[in-house]
User: Fold this.
Amino acid sequence: MERKHEIPEAVRECRGEIVAAWRGSRGGVSDDEAFSRLEAGMGRVVDAFAEFLMSPDSVETFSRGGGTRALVGEIARDQHVLGRDSAGVIEDFSALRRALWQAVEGRVDLSSRDGGEVADFFVKLLQASDWVTEAALEAYDSVARQEMEEALGRAAATDLVTGLPDQDALSRLLLPNAIEAQERFSLAVFDVAGFSETVASGEVKRARKVLRRLAAAVRDAAGEHAECARFGDDEVCVLLPDQGSESAYEMAERVLEKLRGRGKDDFQVDVGIAEYPVHGKEAEALIVEMLRALKMAKRVGGGGIVVAR
Assistant:
């Protein structure tokens, strides 16, 4: 081994020891999936450090054509999952630098080396550590900002009356995802009869109460794997994964049964059902068939349930 490469080679040889020391100092649990990914990422950072130490290039090349920055982005996502804050991100990389330095001290007799060589190693280690820490903070902020924007988007796509996703979320997200992931599912829409007249007569509070009761009844009858959404002013829609129209019909009957016999708070609901892919292979076509079935149910009246043909 050339003496000028002895220090970076020692870093490579001590990779496992360095990562183990880092893990001990950060107090992670190895069987935690996110921490295991973070630990593996730190090992790859050690590899990047060793490569940089052997190179005559300046720290500006440390990104390795964007490879190191991409790695840091992966690490930042796991740091965010683990609940790290900015101080935790900094400490992760500071702990790695300390572990690397201590491993080299234990493997290489630095007192016997040329002072300039040792100084060069220390400077490059600090430069690389500072670079990766700064890049990690940028990546972490980006991850946190993206999560906040997604949360705001989810909040904006939530109906304030029922607490369910709104029609846009159903059409643009829930339904396309189901088409991609499921071989079969059913879509049912529950329409409150006379809702517009109730609102027009000034009974807005009663109308809202009716919608909330309907949403609760649908959620309860549909089960934990179903996706519910408000669909239009007076409608609640439910997506039933892996269920055909017969199962959806039975679920609709349970909903109507829950809503009966409440005296002055009683109200009538009509139901339209469509099944994927029997009644439509695309989201828009499936919604059209579901609404066509609902229109037929409303014509029949009396709290009817109609399945698309």
In short: The CA atoms of residues 59 and 128 lie 6 Å apart. The chain has two domains: 3-156, 167-307.
